[in-house]
Design brief:
The chain contains four helices and eight strands; from the N terminus they run αααβββββββαβ. The protein has about 200 residues and is of the alpha+beta class. The strands form two sheets. A five-stranded antiparallel β-sheet has the order 1-2-3-6-7. The longest helix is centred in the first third of the chain and has 18 residues. The radius of gyration is 17 Å and the shape is globular. Its EC number is 3.5.1.88.
Length: about 200
């Protein structure tokens, strides 16, 4: 049974065993574009990826399934070399601990996403980046564009365009990198991991 057949079975819940780790050649391959209209299997794949992110952020489900928390997932991480990413970025609670009005600042399944424009200015996360396919900590700043415009197709085959900045822009760039065989630590300055180039914004 192929990975996509296994993952899109009705009863299957994606867990950490489905996620391939560094060293697997699929993570270094350039993924294939989807053709439209999407097959039922392609649509279910996107829905299962989003379901995984929701489970990974739910303390009860995460513990039950043994999941690491995630805000993004790309199909190549499931050993499926196709150009789809799912992103789910929760909004924080307010200072008094009340839940936000909108649960998520970004919730999208993107088929064939591509960055069509970006800022010259770069940004990096203060704590660096992690990845569900990388089981070790790799320290260092990962410089990325601080603002991007991404174009993609939704599951109905409609072209969409989103302008993103800050953390949401970084999450989407991290996931699109997976579609091109790039891992986050490829972007770290190996000689000086915490060197800050002029003009780079560090996001807490």
């Amino acid at each position: 049974m192929s990975p996509i057949e296994k993952i899109t079975k009705a009863a299957h819940l994606i867990d950490m065993n489905d996620i391939i780790r560094e060293g697997n050649p699929t993570l270094r391959a350039k993924a294939e574009e989807f053709t439209f209209p999407l097959s039922d299997q392609d649509i279910i794949l996107g829905e299962k990826m989003m379901q995984f992110l929701k489970h990974s952020q739910d303390p009860v489900m995460a513990e039950k399934l043994g999941l690491r928390g995630g805000v993004g997932l790309a199909a190549p991480q499931l050993d499926i070399s196709k150009r789809i990413i799912a992103v789910l970025v929760p909004n924080p609670e307010d200072e008094e601990g009340n839940p936000p009005e909108e649960a998520y600042s970004l919730q999208e399944m993107m088929y064939n996403p591509k960055i069509i424009s970006h800022s010259v200015q770069q940004a990096a996360l203060a704590d660096g980046e992690g990845c569900l396919s990388v089981d070790r900590v790799v320290e260092g700043y990962v410089p990325r564009h601080s603002r991007i415009t991404v174009e993609y197709f939704d599951k109905d085959g409609h072209k969409q365009k989103l302008k993103l900045k800050g953390y949401n822009a970084i999450v989407v760039q991290h996931e699109i990198d997976h579609l091109n065989g790039v891992l986050f630590y490829d972007r770290i300055n190996i000689a000086e991991p915490f060197k800050i180039e002029e003009g780079v914004i560090i996001l807490d």
